Amino acid sequence: MESPRTQEKTRQGRLGEDFAIGYLESKGHWILFRNYRKAFGELDIISFKDEILHCSEVKFWSESSGFHPLECFHETKRNRMRKVYYYLLKEIPAFYHLTPSFNLIHITEKKEVHFYSSIF
């Protein structure tokens, strides 16, 4: 059974992803996958727009935390996201011709959305 803290983090994560999906759709993205998981990693949202396959990490982040969500994209995180992306290409070869973009979608406590495209 999950602890109350874990349950709250899961709830906030889903809420943040809901906001992110709404944002992406308002900008013309087609949402292809949500929580595309493999044993070695996950892509929170995979969307498509203008021949670009957007692989987005969503962070519901408190401004009072003392650092910016971009700081979470250390080498290990980037490598995991790439590995999941390459697995997606093996599963769906039709995506090979699309340009990949690895993004961060930062949702603030005030429900503001900050979109950082092609961060690595």
TrEMBL record:
Gene3D superfamilies (UniProt xref): 3.40.1350.10
Q: Name one Pfam family in it.
A: UPF0102
Domain of life, per lineage: Bacteria
Q: Name one GO molecular function term.
A: nucleic acid binding
* Similarity comment: Belongs to the UPF0102 family.
What's the name of the protein? Uncharacterized protein
Q: Which organism is it from?
A: Leptospira terpstrae serovar Hualin str. LT 11-33 = ATCC 700639
